[in-house]
Amino acid sequence: MATHAQDRSVSHEEKSEYQKKHKPASSFASRADYLNHELQIMRPRRWGLNLPGRDFRFEIEDLVPALAGTIGIIAMYSAVMMSWADGLTAAWDHITLGKAFAVEVARVEMLIPALLFCVLLCGFINPRANLAGNHGPMIPLVGTIALAGAHPLALGILIGAFGLILSYLKGGSKLVNLTSQGVAGGLLIFLGFGGAKGQIESLLAWGAAIDMGYISILILAVSIVIYAFLARIGKRWLAIPVCAVTGGLIATALGAGSSLEFVTQPGVPNLNPVYWWGSTEQGWQLGLPNLSHFLASLPFALLAVAMWSPDFLGHRIFQELNYPKKAEKVLMDVDDTMTGCSIRQMVGASVGGGNITSSWGTYMIPAAIARRPIPGGAIVLGLLCIAVALIGYPMDVATWPPVMTIALLSGVFLPLLEAGMQMVKDAKSSQAAGICIFASMAVNPVFGWAVTMLLDNNGLIGDKERPTTLSTVDRLVIPTATVIICIAAMLAVGMIPGIPSLL
């Protein structure tokens, strides 16, 4: 009994530790000092109940990553659902899907997963797990996935199952730990540069399409100045809302507002899974998946999960670069994030969704820059997603090119580029980064990361002393297996240039 009482006393003391150490912002010399102190004293519970006030607080800075994540996820959900609609319409004679279908499915994805995983899981149950968002690199493959005969529900089930296996084996954190600073820096530089280039081209194409190319140039110029100014005064975390709003205002003021169409009506999407999967005459018009659907989905599911680790790595690095020392307790746990993404993938697909999920970068990157932990912003983000899905019209604004492209450019891809450059600190890391960038350009970032990690961990590039610090399993077995799995999956789906799909 005494021991039990003592355990309860210790437990009570642990629960109240954050409250005991918390100090009002007015007692600090600067806002940054207050935010750093909050990160250092937080002790969030993994797979337990976390409560506002007792374990974390809401701050005004939480609103920025929440807004950024909402804008980003609307754009990406809309893109992936439209890709499914186009691909399935082309692949099947009896299927005709359009924008209305894509919008409805995107709203389903924003409602149920936002409530269950943003608010409940990442906000209250496990704030060490980053939110489960969208797998951006997989979006260009969705058309190929549909043409290969895959089924969205089968794909979601397989991704979730593979992800749970990898997270149970602690494979995600192992791969992250085996990726050196040089390899990680090269990966971030490539992703940042490639993404920024794509967004700039998208904005210029939009301007050309409405015969107002000068508006795109002006928006980019003003955004660069604003971003530089915010970085100079230490307020870079405001880049997404400030730059996105400015881009929209400039476009409207110069006469491009007519290109913004409000077509998404308020309302609640159909939340009945039977509607989406129970009949071939409604919803996806595919019915329930059969064995052939699972076989066609298999290589894409393997590829998606293989691509999780470099994605998660980039997001955790942002926390490490922006958080103060002794804030390890609030860093995202890669394996917990993988568990959350896996469950969210299966739940989202089962209720009618078609998203391919991954760690939520458009939330995590601004949150890290703003020096905020996961839970407060996660709850705000979840509520915003629910509100947007119900109201409808904000989805049209968030996907308008002057808003969407500038938000992603200033809030995701430029910070990625900067973070990668910060990690390349010496000749050894620059060599590994250069090879990673080269391999990523030659094939794709998954190939670049996997191959460079194998070379780097065996001393063939980068730090020649690195192999002496690693076991044979970490140095050779795991990196080699990663390369083989990635290459096999890419060969199967035709992701290696010059080699046709083996499917």
From TrEMBL:
Region annotated Disordered, chain positions: 1-25
Membrane-spanning ranges: 63-84, 105-126, 138-168, 205-230, 237-256, 291-309, 374-393, 399-420, 432-455, 475-496
Compositional bias per record (Basic and acidic residues), positions renumbered to this chain: 1-19
Name this protein carries in UniProt: DUF3360 family protein
Record's keyword terms, sorted: Membrane, Transmembrane, Transmembrane helix
One Pfam entry name: DUF3360
InterPro entries for the chain: DUF3360
